[in-house]
Design brief:
The chain has 298 residues and is of the alpha+beta class. The protein has a domain of 125 residues: Dna Repair Protein Xrcc4, Chain: A, domain 1, CATH 2.170.210.10. Helix content is 49%, strand content 19%. It contains 7 helices and 7 strands. Strands 1-2-3-4-7-6-5 form a 7-stranded antiparallel beta sheet. The protein is elongated. The two termini are 40 Å apart. The relative contact order is 0.09.
């Protein structure tokens, strides 16, 4: 299954969303274009994908929807309109989704209507290659973790500054008008211990469906957009380097500087008049045949 580079690059910045098929929970992301689509779906144990161009979409639509004769772009647009509410957590009640897993992959069945006629579609997903899993899931999660660590440290620093500001007010004689607003000075170690003991079990109790909540979806998109931006910069740098190397190869090596003897001879020929009677005949000087420059593949 060949993956369109343009489609996968567009898919990279699409956030993961939680979807439910029966009692099973999945993470999924999809990107539709006029040229086709690419779907990535995972149950956090396996990752599957399908990439289909317009020709494949047209062929499958004829097999599944023999009564429908619409343009391929209409099929793609309809699929887009069916998948977007699903990923947003608001599936259309008139559309049903189901999936079948096998050793060779996963098939996602879609049943809906188009132009008043039944509409069927099957996403035939095969196991995703390791590089795709790393690009769309592993590396972004590692970077998100790093971003969140920086964010926590900045918030801790801000809390300590606020405590110092409040203490200064107290020493100056200021008092709270409402005692219920009083807080204890922030202690990072105590906070971390309470978080591990109290908040962490609640997070795991929420289940895998909350893996990418709204705020994390925004963070994922921001991280992957930054990664795509850096990748474009690296590509431009590599292209510039390739252009320089190509120019050097085409131009060939620089001609070697003339030898001292050649310079002396040339200078004598330029400074001695040709018609001078005192000029002594010189023996012919054998010309040295320049060595052939060696190319890259000589």
């Amino acid at each position: 299954m060949e993956v369109s580079e343009e489609l996968e690059s567009s898919l990279l910045t699409e956030p993961w969303a939680s979807v439910h098929f029966g009692e099973s929970t999945f993470l999924a992301k999809v990107c539709f274009r006029n040229t086709g689509y690419i779907l990535l779906i995972s149950n956090l144990s396996s990752v599957w994908y399908e990439s289909a161009d317009a020709e494949a979409v047209g062929q499958r639509s004829k097999e599944l929807n023999k009564r429908l004769t619409v343009h391929v772009s209409s099929f793609l647009n309809h699929l887009h309109n069916l998948m977007c509410p699903l990923l947003a957590g608001q599936p259309d009640s008139a559309t049903t989704f189901s999936c079948n897993r096998s050793a060779s992959g996963l098939i996602l069945h879609v049943k809906s209507e188009l132009s008043g006629l039944p509409f069927y579609w099957d996403f035939h997903c095969c196991p995703a290659p390791l590089e795709m899993v790393s690009r769309h899931l592993v590396r972004p999660l590692i970077r998100m973790n790093l971003v969140l660590q920086y964010q926590v440290q900045e918030l801790i620093s801000l809390l300590l500054q606020k405590d110092a500001e409040i203490e200064d007010y107290r020493e100056s004689g200021a008092a709270l008008s409402r005692d219920r607003l009083r807080t204890e000075p922030f202690q990072e170690e105590t906070f971390q211990q309470n978080f591990m003991a109290e908040s962490l079990p609640k997070i795991f109790g929420a289940g895998e469906g909350q893996a990418f909540a709204s705020a994390l979806q925004q963070l994922y998109t921001a991280v992957t957009q930054q990664e795509a931006k850096q990748a474009r910069k690296r590509q431009c740098s590599e292209d510039d380097a390739d252009l320089v190397s190509t120019a050097e190869i085409i131009g060939g090596p620089h001609s070697p500087p003339p030898s001292q003897e050649d310079e002396t001879t040339s200078y004598s020929e330029r400074t001695t008049p040709a018609s001078s009677p005192a000029q002594k005949p010189r023996l012919p000087v054998a010309k040295v045949k320049p060595k052939k420059a060696k190319g890259l593949f000589s």
